[in-house]
């Protein structure tokens, strides 16, 4: 019987499912960080409430897009690899995924 090494593990060191897209996720997060600093400057400069709220909404959507990208990486990497290793590990990852979605959706 051949043992499948999950993609999210390299030897004993866990590798996150988003490893292949890490640079992309970091670039988006850095952009969002700049956006948040810009919002802070808008408040400091007494900018219009509507403009500030619009930027806050845009930053929230940008964070949601990062979260969706990470979730996609998790499903395609960690969950899929766990399913290949056997039913017990798969069930563990499915439960983890359900909990993650519940938290993300606040259900």
Automatic annotation (TrEMBL):
CDD domains associated with the record: CsoR-like_DUF156
Presence of keyword Glycoprotein: no
Xref: Gene3D superfamilies: Metal-sensitive repressor, helix protomer (1.20.58.1000)
UniProt xrefs under Pfam families: Trns_repr_metal
Keyword set includes Ribosomal protein: no
Signal sequence range: none
The entry's keywords: Copper
Family membership: Belongs to the CsoR family.
The protein's name: Metal-sensitive transcriptional regulator
Organism: Streptomyces incanus
């Amino acid at each position: 019987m051949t043992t499948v090494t999950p993609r999210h593990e390299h030897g004993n060191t866990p590798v996150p499912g988003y490893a292949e897209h890490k640079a992309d996720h970091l670039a988006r997060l850095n952009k969002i960080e700049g956006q948040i600093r810009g919002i802070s400057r808008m408040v400091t400069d007494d900018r219009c409430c509507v403009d500030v709220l619009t930027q806050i909404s845009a930053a929230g959507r940008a964070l949601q897009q990062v979260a969706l990208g990470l979730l996609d990486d998790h499903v395609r990497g960690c969950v899929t690899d766990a399913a290949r290793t056997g039913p017990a590990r798969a069930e563990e990852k499915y439960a983890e995924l359900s909990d993650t979605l519940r938290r993300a959706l606040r259900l």
